[in-house]
Amino acid sequence: MSLKPLPKDRLGNDVLVGSRVRLLKLSGNWFEQLPSEAKLRVSSIIGEIFEVEAIDEYGSPWFSKDWHNEYEGTCFAHSIALDAQEMELV
């Protein structure tokens, strides 16, 4: 079994499960294909700091975000995998 290299942030720092990263931008087809309301909600988290929850088999770090609307009784959640240029270790 070979060890995969650790994911890196935009500055080349190693990113581990439990690392805290600032979300700098979102890119990719998945984001462009979101419905407009979901795209607005997801883009609102740019600049926030998140804890890396997992690193997948491709070496992508993941985090998740929940939006609760108690008034409407709804909850939306997104799990997002990040590329190096989309995050910075804090």
Describe it for me?
This protein has helices at residues 29-32, 36-43, and strands spanning 20-23, 49-51, 54-55, 61-69, 74-81, 87-89. It is of the alpha+beta class and 90 residues long. The strands form two sheets. A three-stranded antiparallel sheet has the order 2-1-6, with no helix packed on it. The chain has a three-stranded antiparallel sheet with strand order 3-4-5, with no helix packed on it. A hairpin with a 5-residue loop joins strand 3 (54-55) and strand 4. It is elongated, with a radius of gyration of 14 Å. The relative contact order is 0.31. The mean pLDDT is 90.
SSE blueprint and pairings:
Layout: E1 20-23, H1 29-32, H2 36-43, E2 49-51, E3 54-55, E4 61-69, E5 74-81, E6 87-89
Antiparallel strand pairs: 1-2, 1-6, 3-4, 4-5
Please supply descriptive tags for the structure shown above.
90 residues; alpha+beta; three-stranded antiparallel sheet
Order of helices and strands: EHHEEEEE
| Spatial separation of the terminal alpha carbons | 31 Å
| Poorly predicted regions | none
Largest sheet, in brief, is: 3 strands, antiparallel
User: Which strand order do you get reading across the main beta sheet?
Assistant: 2-1-6
Shape descriptor reads elongated
Number of helix segments? Answer: 2
Oligomer: single chain
Strand content: 25-35%
How does the helix and strand content classify structurally? alpha+beta
Overall mean pLDDT stands at 90
Q: Helicity, in percent?
A: 10-25%
Radius of gyration: 14 Å
Count all strands and give the number: 6
